[in-house]
Amino acid sequence: MIKGFLFDLDGVIVDTAVYHYQAWRRMANELGFDISEEFNETLKGISRMDSIARILEHGKVSLPEERILELAKLKNEWYLEEVEKMTSANVLPGIQELISQLKAGGYKISLGSASKNAPKILERIGLAPEFDAIVDGNSVKKSKPDPEVFIKGAEALNLKNEECLVIEDAFAGIEAAHAAGMKAIGIGTKENLPNADLILASFEEVKLEDLLKEL
Ligand code: B16
Ligand code: MG
């Protein structure tokens, strides 16, 4: 029986996935190569330092550790320029309504994000007080598809893993949910998320009872 929901942040609650892509692309372009949207798909849910390692490998660029850290910091500054402009209007369609339905139904909710910027983003969009727990890139060591972020989410809610349902937009995130013994709803398409237990384009007009029946 499902008692709790673990929400990914980027690409589920807000569309920051596009800001991550723009900032990584700017960095890659400055290094003399480009990254496609298709390649960017493989970065979703992956931590900042794992992402930069994958991007540099993709561009066949080898740099000293110090320079890599500098570039990761710069990318984050570019990314935060966009985050600073965010308001509650950036919450993706249907999310606020879903959270209200979950609260009314007595479900617990936690964030399960790889992002170190998660607290800042939740503050900006005004959703921080809605969460019973926040597990993010500051509290986990291993990147999705490792299940650590969701295992910690279930623990923070005082629930068993199988009592939690994950909502994700990343292939790696759905792998992480499954590795934790949880089902996952994918926000996206069958092509991007063939591993999801249920696919939705968004939460717009979605009723919680209907959702739970389909899983
Ligand atoms: P940051 P999620 C992930 O967040 C993003 O999908 C991924 O693109 C990003 O690199 C990662 O967070 C780290 O983010 O640089 O803000 O710490 O989708 O797990 O909410
Ligand atoms: Mg995501």
Features:
alpha/beta; six-stranded parallel β-sheet; binds 1,6-di-O-phosphono-beta-D-glucopyranose; binds magnesium ion
Radius of gyration: 17 Å
Bound molecules: 1,6-di-O-phosphono-beta-D-glucopyranose, magnesium ion
User: What does the average pLDDT come to?
Assistant: 96
Major sheet attributes: 6 strands, parallel
Return the structural class: alpha/beta
Q: Give the neighbour order of strands across the main sheet.
A: 3-2-1-4-5-6
Give the H and E element order: EHHHHHEHEHEHEEH
Which ranges are low-confidence, i.e. pLDDT below 50, for 5 or more consecutive residues? none
Gross morphology is: globular
- Helical fraction equals 40-55%
Q: For the terminal residues, how far apart are their CA atoms?
A: 11 Å
- Number of strand segments: 6
Which percent band covers the strand fraction? 5-15%
Per DSSP, the total helix count is 9
Tell me what the structure shows.
Helix 8 links the parallel strand 4 and strand 5. This protein has helices at residues 17-30, 37-41, 48-58, 65-83, 95-104, 118-125, 148-156, 171-179, 208-214, and strands at 4-7, 108-112, 133-135, 164-168, 183-187, 198-200. The termini are close together. A six-stranded parallel β-sheet has the order 3-2-1-4-5-6, with helices on both faces. 43% of the residues lie in helices and 12% in strands. It is built from nine helices and six strands. With 215 residues, it is α/β, with parallel strands linked by helices. Bound molecules: 1,6-di-O-phosphono-beta-D-glucopyranose and magnesium ion (MG). Magnesium ion (MG) binds next to loops.
